[in-house]
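In the previous chapter we treated chains in isolation. Here, by contrast, the input contains two separate entities that must be folded as one system, with a combined length of 702 residues.
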Amino acid sequence: MSDHHPTGITRWLYTTNHKDIGSMYLWFSFIMFLVGGAMAMVIRAELYQPGLQFVDPGFFNQMTTMHGLIMVFGAVMPSMVGLANWLIPMMIGAPDMALPRMNNWSFWILPFAFTLLLSSLFMEGGAPNFGWTFYAPLSTTYGPPSTDFFILGVHMMGISSIMGAINVIVTVFNMRAPGMTLMKMPMFVWTWFITAFLLIMVMPVLAGVVTMMLTDRHFGTSFFDAAGGGDPVMFQHIFWFFGHPEVYIMILPAFGVVSEIIPAFSRKKLFGYSSMVYATASIALLSFIVWAHHMFTVGMPVAGELFFMIATMLIAVPTGVKVFNWVATMWQGSLTFETPMLFSIAFVILFTIGGFSGVMLAMAPVDFQYHDTYFVVAHFHYVLFPGAIFGTTAAVYYWLPKWTGKMYNEKVGKIHFWLSMIFVNLTFFPMHFSGLAGMPRRIPDYNMMFADFNMWASIGAFGLGLTQVFFLVTIIMAIRGGKKAEEKQWDGATGLEWDALPSPAPYHTFSTPPKVD
Amino acid sequence: MTEQLQQKNKKLVKQLLALVGGMCLFVVALVPLYDVFCDITGINGKTRGQALYENVEVDKKRVVTVEFLTNINRGMPWEFESQTKSVEVHPGELNEVRFYAKNRSKFDIVGQSVPSVSPGEAALYLNKTECFCFDKQRLTAGEEVEMPMKFYIDADIPKDITRLTLSYQLFNVTEAASTESAATK
């Protein structure tokens, strides 16, 4: 009876099963990914040539804003929570998440939050147009009326994230199978455990800053209004105190994913497991003291710039440890290159490129030139697309046989990988050059001198967008008509989900805890 | 799920919710903390309140150039200018400059000017004994005024600062001022 589950729509509405909720998170994030991607297509179509072609500048600003918000809060974050739901209980030998009903609630808030946010596109005055960073006074004094919908949406998804994080921490602390000590947990569980603490620490800060915006807009306070004694620079400080840990929230679970996949296809144990754990924790701790590197140009004293510059560069050390460990894991392994492994290797290489441009941006004196240019856009897309998104994609390919009991078509998966790999570089690599040459971000028109770089980037973006639709087809093909997956689909895979469970994993697993030695 | 596990989960959830609550309080506390921090270090270029000119030592050997800038915010139909563009002062010396403002509109308007000093750390050494920025100004339609501002530079000002800029941004606060006075009634 372990496979018995309710049917119909109420199965999904009322479910408290971590696997159902994980699937819903993943599908939701994929839909948001396509929505946010469609907005990116509008942006790249407009930027294909200099001059104004398709959309007016106001709508262009709405597109850059909504693209950022949807991708960060709607696509990347929920996809990571989806993976956590599916994998953490199976990896630590728990029957389910610790707080299943809260789990249901934290998912079902999201569709409403994003309906609110997306509905602003159809409102008078348009959607939020101040960039995903919603700097005051753009979002307070000059924000469109729909900003209030944005604020409420952010509040709701913040509550959802906090509940998800609490659930992960309680599950990891209290639900581990006997013998599963903290230092035996798979890396993915560790990275999520640390991410969950980051979420709990910074989502209230985000909620606080949007609440201050709301009271500034409607209740006569002046937190960020200089006329009333406030300070718009304080907005940036509070926002980035949230914002910098947020970027690690988006990437740490992906670190965990590749730390599972690379050992499996190298047929070796992960090199330096404990150093991986400590490196992840150090990255998380350091992320709280580097926020002002996003705002070097506000006019900080030299001492402040030096502090934030050095602290930021310090993050390169634990990150370097991780990259070194991944490479050392592959060193002299008997490597095979199935789709998840390809995505993971691409992750390591391309994330490192993004890391390097991050170190360049961390240098305060040169950041004065790079600030708010396409170089920044290139940097964070390199860590987010081939970072967070490739990480999630690798995870989907790797665990799909375990989740569905069906194998994807390896040939099709490889085509998906190579197209993604070529187009992601074609899209984002030229942005380094246009940024260094001085092209500012968030503009619908640009100088003729940037025309070639932008045309390449646009062609790359259209290709990259279509390739992700292809990903959807690949998954549906696998679920509908894939070959039957084996219990241990990958011979190098380790962990309870592969060793102790059949494929597909039954609806209820580990009702009696497995023995871990 | 066993009773014991449920108790354990409940306890941990409460602790984590306390952490969330603590972080919420932290955000609220950040606002006054930010002001205090900036006040101590002077790094956001805000000048302090009224200073007294008593027993101030004058350093005749040094000269600091002080420049004055005025900006008018959006939706503020005033003229607002400094009558002196820049002065050279000895640290410790009391100086007076005058600012001119005129309401060009047909309405009564309340203005608030907000000072800012660049480089930011110089704000700690710029002391004002009298400034129009300490109060709001109400000008009737077409009214014009000359507003004095008296200041001295602290003799402790770091040697590398030889030039500083004091800028005033003038905001229209008519709406906020009217709700305030309504509230005090």
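Chain B has two helices and nine strands. The helical segments of chain B are 3-41, 174-184. Compare these points with the single-chain example from earlier in the chapter.
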